[in-house]
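Sequence, please.
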């Protein structure tokens, strides 16, 4: 799906290597955190890279920071972000943190995909990007599926009802009779009653 959307020119991702903006001869981009025993991404490479991006596109873009320490992403957040922001910069930290001064100066949105820590937040960014891309018209084969899926507005942000396909009976288990009835009103009522 993501590959198809990219081939159609519906979105583009450009990556930047912070090592290219390092101010150290070793090309390192992290340093020991004050008062702690671990490494944190330094402010200079991040600030330099952000300024490079803003200069390249001739404008300041919203900056999203992937972090475990913020409100967990949900479908409503995704829809709001998709509606309001068409271009953005996503910062992927290493382990848990980047220098707080970058967050204070540049970051507009902090996004978490769960209450856990990853070695690199590129995976979280891929999840986030995928969730946004699904909302672009014509990325999905059936655009109506966005309207009636788990956590959609139409389903009152609840989990989708159980779904069935052929055969009508499998391993002694049958499809609920109401779904075979052809009565669209009763089927819609059944779906509502079975939201999770």
């Amino acid at each position: 799906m993501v590959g198809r959307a990219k081939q159609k020119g519906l979105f583009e991702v450009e990556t930047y290597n912070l090592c290219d903006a390092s101010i150290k001869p070793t090309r390192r981009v992290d340093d020991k955190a004050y008062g702690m025993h671990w490494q944190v991404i330094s402010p200079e490479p991040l600030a330099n890279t952000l300024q490079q991006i803003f200069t390249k596109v001739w404008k300041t873009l919203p900056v999203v920071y992937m972090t475990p320490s913020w409100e967990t992403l949900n479908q409503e957040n995704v829809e709001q972000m998709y509606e309001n922001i068409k271009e953005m910069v996503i910062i992927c930290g290493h382990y848990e943190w980047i220098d707080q001064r970058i967050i204070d100066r540049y970051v507009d949105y902090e996004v978490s995909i769960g209450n856990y820590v990853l070695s690199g937040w590129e995976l979280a960014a891929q999840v986030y990007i995928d969730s946004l891309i699904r909302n672009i018209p014509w990325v999905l084969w059936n655009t109506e599926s966005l309207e009636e899926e788990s956590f959609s507005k139409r389903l009152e942000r609840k989990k989708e009802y159980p779904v069935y396909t052929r055969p009508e009976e499998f391993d002694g288990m049958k499809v609920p009779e109401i779904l075979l009835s052809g009565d669209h009103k009763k089927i819609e009522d059944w779906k509502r009653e079975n939201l999770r």
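The chain has two domains: 2-133, 143-193.
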